[in-house]
Amino acid sequence: MNELGGAEVFGARRTSFGAYAAAYDAVRPEWPARTVDWMLGSPATAMVCRVVDLGAGTGKGTRAIAALGHLVIAVEPSDGMREALTASLRVLPEEVVGRISALAGEAEDIPVEPGSVDAVTVFQAWHWFDAKAAATECARVLRPGGWLSMGWHHRSEDVGWSRDLSDIVERPENQPDDEEAPPVAPEFESSETELFSYRMRQSVEDLVLHASTWSYVAIHPERDRVLGDVRALGRKVADGDGMVEIPMTTRCYRLRRR
Q1: Which three-class secondary structure state does DSSP give residue 219?
Q2: Among 1, 32, 52, 160, which residue has the fewest nearby CB atoms (within 10 Å)?
Q3: CB-side exposure of 206: number of CA atoms within 13 Å?
Q4: For 63-83, what is each residue's pLDDT tens digit?
């Protein structure tokens, strides 16, 4: 059993992503435009926001923000993840690329000026931060009335095979709980919450690659055996086209800077 617990395991999971950056970018869920628009405060089409994307990873959220016409500063501590982000920009239109900059940095020490951004987004990453320090930093860099938003994708377990997948990969019982908004600094108003649902389709091999990017699988002592079992399950539940349909739910929060 490979359960989350203790500073050593948490640290290993927190830093496991860089080694699998290319795979992470290829197979992790996307962030649909309607989700991102809500996280930015549902701005009018004509409004251009300046956004810090914290824990930006390979830029999946960053690219979605820029595609909506906004300016994005992607802040990410992992060299491997930032390199994957930069590589991903090569296939984007020039006008989208021009809206993105990437900086080395952490949520607890954001490398931008005070009051200089309209929004701070955190896609699938807030649980890796020191929440108190990160909230204070977000309050510092946001203008009054700006938004701090965070979102988490979840694989729905409404279908039996998805529950079987959780058992195979030994998904920790004490995964980050987003049923309630994470506590933040007093500089923010009460949180607003929204749920978004969608389905993603992946080939069996992409499902295996997807599972390999989960932090608790990445550090599992029997990782190859686990991924072999994921492959067997994927083949069992794939449709006639060899694809697996994965029901997803995204829970988002947004908090306005007072």
Answers
A1: coil
A2: 1
A3: 15
A4: 999 999 999 999 999 999 999
